[in-house]
Amino acid sequence: MFLKTGLLILGKPLYNGFMRRNCRLKKSITKALIIVISIVMLFTLLINYVLRIQLIHSNVEEKSADLFWQIENMIKKNEQDLAQIKSDFADDCLIRARMAAYVAQHYPEVINSREEAIGVAELLQVDEIHFFNTEGEIYAGTHPEYYHYNFNSGEQMKFFLPMLEDHSLELCQDITPNTAEQKLMQYAAVWMEDGSGIVQIGLEPQRVLKAMEGRTFSSVFSLIPTDSATVLYAIDPDSYEIVSCTAPEYIGKNAEELGLELDGHSGKLTVAHPTIEGRKNYCAIKDSDSLILARTYLESSLYKQVLTDTWLLATDIVFLSVLAIIFIYIYLDRKIVKGIIAINKKLYEIEQGGTDILFSEDAVPELAELSTHINAMLKSVLSSTKKMSIALELSRIPIGLYEYTPGSKRVVATSRVRDILMLTDEEYNYILGHPELIPQKEQQLKKNALHQSDNIYRLPGTVERYVRFEEFTYEESNLAILIDVTQEVREKRHIEQERDIESLTGLFNRRAFYAKMDEIFMNGKPLNYSALIMIDADKLKETNDLYGHRGGDLYLKKIAGVIETYHHGNAVAARLGGDEFVLCIYDCPDKGEIDSIIKDITADQDGYTVALDDHVEITVHFSMGYALYPEEGDNYHSLLELADERMYQNKKTRNGPLVR
Fold first, then answer.
1. For residues 200 and 336, what is the distance between their CA atoms, to the nearest angstrom?
2. Same domain, 238 and 126
């Protein structure tokens, strides 16, 4: 005991010397850390500044390309929409002109009576009706002030001159100021069936003009979000005049005089650095069909943003560096230095003959802790899949993951896969135990594609459930993600229903009906017996006059209800507008079924009543006409025209001439 005490006392000077050396070690390490961190910080800030400048320039260029792409697509979309609107309006004008010619042919009193002509114009919802003789001169119609005008009276009217040579022509003129009043109109003209004259109708193109107003460059630019430092330009490529701009004061100015450099750039996106009103700008320019698109961004804003970001980064680095140095200093003192001292002390004691001291990993807490952390890390890595599964379970995201390797029995899956695929525990466990079945199950899922491009599929069974299935291969493993998108699909369908359903009657609207017809008649699949039935409300005007528009709405809803009774199975019902309805019965294996439905609808023409209030109940009347497929045609447009013609014949038979 005495010997050991002496050895310990003898070792104290050595121990104290080691302590002094370790104090110098801490100071040296701290000084080295400060120097290294300072150099790294300055180098990082410099690199960051340069990279930020390049990145911002690149981002501005990419953002400009994206904006130009959006603008080009919006302009093209506007042009396509406007062309479609004009085409639809022109088709509508020709249809009304044919209807007017039909009425004039069968009811000559319309030609001789201006009041009758006005009545037909109101019936057809047109603004003008003119009757021309075979020489091309107006001799009757709704506007006496136009009488004696002929096809040679002005450039607008000369458009219809070819009709005098070719009686088969049916012409619809673009929106043009008319000869008499220079009023914007759209005219359509057709020959009467007996060739005794030409019938022309005129419509004020309010819908087309309104659509044109909403599709200007200014309206396109108003939809593009920009900040105060950004200006968008649309420039005429010939005159370099700025035709539209997010800065209104530049509209009408010459772009080159303003400072933009347009000469010499190619059709691709180019970058320049012009000075506009004394301020340097970063400018992206691109040719776009009939325009030059440009986007400027103040360089001062770019550099201000870079400097701000750099100062913030410098502040963060300094703060973190100070914290790091303090932490390292404390860590060196408490963990490493003291640990080394303890190790050396024990080594010294052993060297001095301390045989009762055991040197093991537990004698050095840092090493023991390091071993513990390594083991914990390995355990954490091995259990990462379980942790992810638990995290997904605790979250509210309906997502499941699984991984398997072909030819291996190993399958890793989160438990939510079972819930998303609506599998029982037995089915789920069986598939996990037989991974060779997974490709087969995946192919079965892909057979019920809702949107192939979106990888959305419907699960088999009576319960409506939709999942998005994404798969990819990593090294030798196949990984898949399953996401429950049932709610998303339902919400999308709800939006489509609001778009396609007519609000008053609950039937399809015109757009949806024609889309359905294209789908049914133009998909290349043969149809069985089919019929198109046109239905038009009778005495609607009298109902509106006597009971107001609410009464008229109830009247129309009742007719829609009658039609809805036949809207089941292979049937499409729609309200085309106003008092016009249509019912399409298609792909019936038995023609007798078609005949039975037509017979029932005929019996219903005067067979229902509607209560307008507690004291008033009136009979609902409607006229109808039908066309049969395939015996009367295989084009649904011509079948609709035939059904419409028969409907008007039925209306004339039931109600008398010109009664609606």
1. 101
2. no
List average pLDDT for each run of 10 residues in the chain, which is 660 residues long: 37 52 67 83 81 74 77 76 80 91 90 91 92 93 92 91 92 90 91 92 78 61 71 82 82 82 68 82 79 81 75 82 78 62 60 47 56 58 60 70 74 77 79 79 77 74 79 77 79 74 88 91 84 94 91 93 87 92 93 92 92 88 94 93 95 63
Q: Which of 489, 515, 546 is the last residue of a domain?
A: 489
Say if residue 113 is in the same domain as residue 184: yes
Which residue, of 201, 233, 268, is where some domain finishes? Answer: 201
Token pair belonging to 50? 């340069």
Residue 532 contacts residue 645 (beta carbons within 8 Å): no
- Same domain for 216 and 295, yes or no, is yes
| Structural domain harbouring 82 | 14-201
Q: Is the full-model pTM beyond 0.70?
A: no
**Calpha distance 131→137 (Å, rounded):** 8
Residue 419: the pLDDT is 76
Same domain, 513 and 424: no
pLDDT attached to residue 38? 84
Strand-by-strand arrangement of the 571-577 sheet: 571-577, 580-588, 529-537, 622-629
Q: The CATH number of the domain where 144 resides is what?
A: 3.30.450.20
Q: Which residues contact 292 (CB under 8 A, 6 or more apart)?
A: 233, 234, 235, 236, 237, 240, 255, 262, 285, 286
Q: To 10 degrees, the CA torsion angle through 47, 51, 54, 60?
A: -150
d(CA 574, CA 584): 9
Locate tokens 């910080």: which residue?
Answer: 41
CA angle 475, 477, 480 (to 5 degrees): 120
CA–CA distance, 233 with 256 (Å, rounded to integer): 12
Do 110 and 243 sit in the same domain of this protein?
no
Please check whether residues 445 and 507 belong to one and the same domain: no
